[in-house]
Automatic annotation (TrEMBL):
Residues 200-433 form the Radical SAM core domain. One of its GO terms (molecular function) is cobalamin binding. Its cofactor is [4Fe-4S] cluster. InterPro entries: Aldolase_TIM (IPR013785), BchE-like (IPR051198), Cobalamin-bd (IPR006158), DUF4070 (IPR025274), Elp3/MiaA/NifB-like_rSAM (IPR006638), HpnP-like (IPR034530), Methyltransferase_Class_B (IPR034466), rSAM (IPR007197). GO terms for cellular component: cytosol. This is Radical SAM domain-containing protein. SUPFAM superfamilies: Radical SAM enzymes. Residues 1-10 have a biased composition (Polar residues).
């Protein structure tokens, strides 16, 4: 996948084989000392995937999704300890927060490295012991030389040893200590994330994790090496309990399954879906579901029918490129099991809007690649595509290949760490042309219009239940609508294009689609306009973002 639209710091594991997971249920550690733990999730740099341009239209929204990984850690800590959680995408930790705690725990991904290290520095100024875990440190421990304790790998025996260490020690160690997971905690024993420590209304959408791992080995993706090739699952009952816990924390609108591949184990997905359908029916279909899945999901009609009944409305597919030779070169042959455009049409026929990942800068790219991508966008009618420059992540086959070829570039003025086969400036210009053309207002709204006519009507008709027509939902909908009509309909520089869609929608009472297009479209258009002015980076993983953060 080119972009990770999930809670991007889910814990990683070292072992690639699920057989290393424990088969015996652990006994919770009972601490002898009282501790105050401050769990901090660092701020993201602005990017395509943060949807920051939509927040002013949404009232109180401050961040994209709750960070699942560190919320699971917060829930796993001893119940006898006091735990405070701060998502710095919502608000920053204060000096008083650092003074309050005994220990600071941080988690994040590579793109958050500067912010993670800054939190460590602030904690050390306050004399506090620091712990960092999550995918970034698990993949590259050398990124975090100043932290007191490193948690390498997924939740498991390392977590238990760190808890025991913190119970027995409060002084900072003289040298860094590393705890590495050898025995993972099975997902079936994961606690419900500590949603009670946050307000779900602060977020663009909610999220849940059902599985971890992916059976495919795309060259550019680090998921198989960090999470394994054999997907591991929570029980359906766990997922339902998490949905209930999220609803208690706020007014949900949509829930994104942050699984690396929701259908990585199709039999497990088939077992989960009846529980989701039953939950939706019992609660009056209060939410829409979205997920990430491989494009060959289109070959599973029974699974698609169940997903439709569970009210899955959006599917993120890592299409990456419409060029078959390029897909084969990056080990993405699963996208070639049926024609790509046909697969998209099948997913649309079940009411699912497709979101696509697109990568520019592959070794197979030519000067004609931008034209082929834009033609694919026209033919597929996909409204939203995450168009990224190729960036090599550590612990991927791509990284190792480019390292062997001497094609890794560590220059913070560049948009990518890859030495492309085409001239660098030409590749960046191809990216800029693709993203600015794709999100030209008229072109984008044409694709949304196609989906309004040919995709959304294929969804099940959900009831006007008390959950859907609650006072909170009505107030939220009115807030979104008024802000869209004012900020987009009056003050935006594409207001004429907006009203071509909005007037018929208002006349027909099609408010839900108007809000969806207004929110998502506004972010896409504004982001592309920033790209045209060279104010945004060409990759979610760009080293150039790190330069901006430091300055």
């Amino acid at each position: 996948m080119t972009v990770n639209l999930k809670s991007l710091e889910n814990p990683t594991h070292i072992a690639a084989d699920s057989k290393t997971a424990s088969t015996t249920k652990r006994t919770s550690y009972v601490p002898s000392q009282h501790r105050r733990i401050l769990c901090i999730f660092p701020k993201y740099s602005r990017s395509f995937g943060t949807f920051h341009h939509a927040y002013p239209l949404m009232g109180n929204v401050r961040a994209f999704m709750p960070p699942q990984g560190i919320l699971i850690v917060a829930a796993y800590l001893p119940k006898e300890w006091e735990v405070r959680f701060i998502d710095e995408n919502v608000k920053s930790a204060t000096r008083a927060d650092y003074q309050w705690c005994d220990v600071v725990i941080v988690s994040g991904m590579h793109i958050q490295k500067p912010q993670i290290n800054q939190i460590n520095e602030l904690a050390h100024r306050a004399g506090k012991i620091t712990v960092v875990g999550g995918p970034s440190v698990s993949g590259c421990p050398e990124y975090y030389p100043e932290f007191d304790i490193l948690h390498l790998g997924e939740l498991g025996d390392a977590s238990d040893r760190i808890i025991e260490y913190l119970d027995q020690n409060l002084e900072r160690p003289q040298a860094q200590i590393r705890f590495e997971t050898k025995e993972r905690l099975p997902l079936t024993e994961f606690p419900t994330p500590a949603y009670h420590l946050l307000n779900i209304n602060d977020y663009f959408l909610a999220n849940v994790q059902f599985s971890s791992g992916c059976p495919y080995r795309c060259e550019f993706c680090d998921i198989p090496e960090l999470y394994g090739n054999s997907p591991r699952m929570k029980t359906p009952e766990q997922v339902v309990a998490e949905l209930d816990a999220m609803r208690q924390s706020g007014n949900l609108g949509a829930v994104y399954f942050v699984d690396d591949n929701f259908v990585g184990d199709r039999r497990a997905a088939m077992k989960l879906l009846p529980h989701l359908i039953d939950w939706q029916k019992r609660n009056g279909y209060p939410i829409q579901f979205a997920c990430e899945a491989t494009l060959n999901l289109a070959q599973s009609p029974k699974l698609l029918e169940m997903m439709r009944e569970a009210y899955f409305c959006t599917i993120f597919c890592g299409i990456e490129t419409p060029e078959p030779d390029a897909l084969h070169a990056i080990s993405k042959d699963q996208n070639l099991s049926m024609p790509i455009l046909k697969a998209i049409q099948v997913l649309n026929s079940y009411g699912m809007e497709v979101v696509s990942g697109i990568i520019i800068g592959l070794d197979t790219d030519t000067p004609e690649t931008a034209d082929r991508i834009l033609e694919f966008i026209r033919a597929s009618q996909i409204p939203m595509l995450t168009i990224n420059l190729l960036h090599a992540l550590p612990r991927t086959p791509l990284w190792r290949r480019l390292e062997a070829e001497g094609r890794l570039v560590f220059d913070e003025s560049r948009e990518s760490n890859v030495e492309f086969l085409m001239p660098y400036e030409q590749v960046v210009e191809m990216w800029r042309r693709c993203i600015t053309t794709a999100y030209e207002p008229e072109f984008l709204y044409q694709r949304f219009a196609y989906n309004i006519e040919h995709t959304y009507p294929n969804r099940i008709e959900v009831p006007n239940s008390p959950a859907r027509t609650s006072g909170a939902n009505i107030r939220k909908g009115l807030t979104y609508l008024v802000n869209i009509l004012l900020r987009v309909g009056i003050f935006s520089n594409y207001r004429q294009t907006f009203w071509k869609m909005a007037k018929p929608a208002l006349k027909a009472g099609n408010i839900e689609n108007l809000i969806h297009v207004g929110l998502v479209g506004h972010h896409l258009i504004k982001f592309a306009q920033d790209c045209a002015k060279n104010e945004e980076s060409a990759s979610f993983y760009s080293q150039k973002i790190l330069t901006k953060v430091r300055s």
